[in-house]
Design a protein that fits this description.
Length: about 180
């Protein structure tokens, strides 16, 4: 959500407007939880990032190679974050990393079985090289690191991820596709 807010801030600045956000911390039983209120004001200087970068964006889900993050890079990330009003934190505890990854997998499997979310995201699935190249806008089976047939199954029959008989197998496959993770930042 932070990346979304920052993207909106950059695009707004390029349009001459200042975007302010106010985080919302509410605990509601509704499946749609607001996380921020946005307000546009002016004027703003354009950002250093042109809008074209957002149109040229590409998604990659290459697996982590497990390489350790150089401490100098960590220091740089902390410095950059601080200078921009944010903070950077990372951890390398293998048990905590695995817990975060497993929670992410649980959330993905859950979300793909929420009909409104499923309808929205599955519109962006791209099942072939030709379709991915022609549209250059979606969740290509290659960047998702799943065979085209598996991605089609997620669209047509997402319930398979919640069935007791198949859930564990699919989760293990998905986890293996993520690779070895040495840090979470």
């Amino acid at each position: 959500m932070g990346m979304f807010l920052e993207s909106m801030r950059i695009i707004s600045a390029n349009s001459g407007l200042t975007l302010q956000h106010f985080l919302i911390d509410e605990d509601v039983g509704d499946p749609m939880i607001r996380f921020a209120e946005l307000e546009l004001n002016g004027p703003s200087e354009p950002s250093q990032y042109p809008d074209d970068l957002f149109h040229a964006r590409r998604t990659s889900r290459l697996p982590s190679n497990g390489a350790r993050i150089d401490p100098q890079v960590t220091t740089l990330l902390k410095t950059l974050s601080s200078h921009n009003g944010h903070r950077y934190f990372q951890f390398d505890d293998p048990e905590l990393i695995e817990a975060v990854i497993l929670e992410n997998i649980r959330a993905v499997f859950h979300d793909l079985n929420v009909s409104a979310y499923h309808r929205e995201i599955s519109r962006w699935f791209r099942y072939s090289d030709a379709e991915a190249q022609a549209k250059s806008d979606g969740l290509d089976y290659r960047c998702m690191r799943v065979p085209s047939m598996e991605l089609r199954l997620m669209k047509q029959l997402p319930q398979v991820m919640s069935w007791p008989i198949t859930r564990g197998v699919i989760r293990r496959i998905y986890r293996r596709q993520l690779g070895k993770v040495s840090h979470v930042g």
